[in-house]
# Entry
Amino acid sequence: MPYYLSWLVVSSVLGITQLFSIGGFGVTPLEFSLVGVFFIAAYRWLWLGQPIQLPRSYSIVGLVAILAAVTISAAAVALGGSAPVVTQTLKTYAHFIYLWMVGLVFLCLPISADDWIRALRVHFTVATVVMIYGLYQLPARVFDWPLAWIDISNVSFTRGLGDVEEVGQIALKFQNFYRATSIFSEPSSLSGYATATLVMLIVPYFRGTASIVRQRWWFWTLIILSSLSIFLAFSMTGLLLLGAALIGMVALYPRESARRLAIVGLFSMMFVGVADRAAEAVTTISVIELFGQRLSSYVSGAAADDELGTIAGDSFSQRLQDYQTAFTAWEDAPITGVGPGSFAESAAGRRYSQPFLSTLIGSVLVEFGLLGFVLIIGGLVGFLINALMVERRWTQRYRGTDCPEEQLASFIPFRWLLIVLTTVTGNFLITPSFWFDVATLVTMQVAVMRTMGGTPVVEFSLVRRRRGYPS
# Structure
């Protein structure tokens, strides 16, 4: 199992490539690799006869809430929608069921904390390479060095672009400065990836828990690389996510966080300052000044107006427009929505020739209606609250224990916090990366709760256990 989890970690960053396509949908390495969990489950449950272990925890409630929201909306459209809408809804629903089942099957497998620790060490190895490459792109794009840009082979990225055959990485140019993307399609993805990596490093550090990365030189190198990646991606989303995570850490660990926050903050700011001077020397642009202009445009309100905005390509006005469009489209089907994946077929979608909305909150409101909004957004917030409750119980009873569960328990709530906050700026409900995150976090939390002895499990077998095989 650790090798399979490690491969999923590797394939999760390869979203701009595809193994093959089904119509206009590109099947990514992660999407394809997630099928493996069904073979693992079949081997355990059918060949070895091991019991299915269904934990009686909030994770089941959250998964069922999301399933109910999507199913109710799909059923309403299937019973009364037009042929194009019904077709699109059923295709999206089938894709959703596959990804949802991935989360459920993972939850029912006995994945240990040790398994995840080994996989996370692979994540930190991959992250090191990914973020070094992102930093390399800064001079590479100025001087036209090799691999400055990566072609996107996934046909999913061409949706809504008409007859465009080639799609490149999105990286707005400010004179000679291009925002870093690394191997992702656009800067915010790199920033989110770096933020999640940084959180998994500094949360255990803030609470005095041993890091998953044992080598001090590697630990601090990753902190530097993560901070620089967030900075050079020039993403406000990453900056806001990191700020919210830091506030949460200070709130949970007030005694330890002040000194350690100062250490990490000063250490990171020093290297960010050096990176800014280097970037300015190469590109004649100060990224710190760009951040200042962007923040001031938010404070003044200029960012909400395309004509007044001082930063070219700022996404704030577009996302604001998406929320307004979402409210207009929601009025067409306020209770159950226009159907999963069917925003483009709605009146508002056709009016604005828009294939999808850029925010999960807006998309959920339109496609699943008010009922789906309460179930899905409420379910995600519930995951966060439950993770925080588990972390508090663990901290009260086992804090300082030298075990893998101690490392996992510390950052699980913060990973959920990043997911919940990203609903404001990202649309990811029916994506393999989101459901891999769900599978990761719920199984990590079950491993923690199992150690505390607080996870009743419902066990049932599909076949009789084969004699001579281990349980």
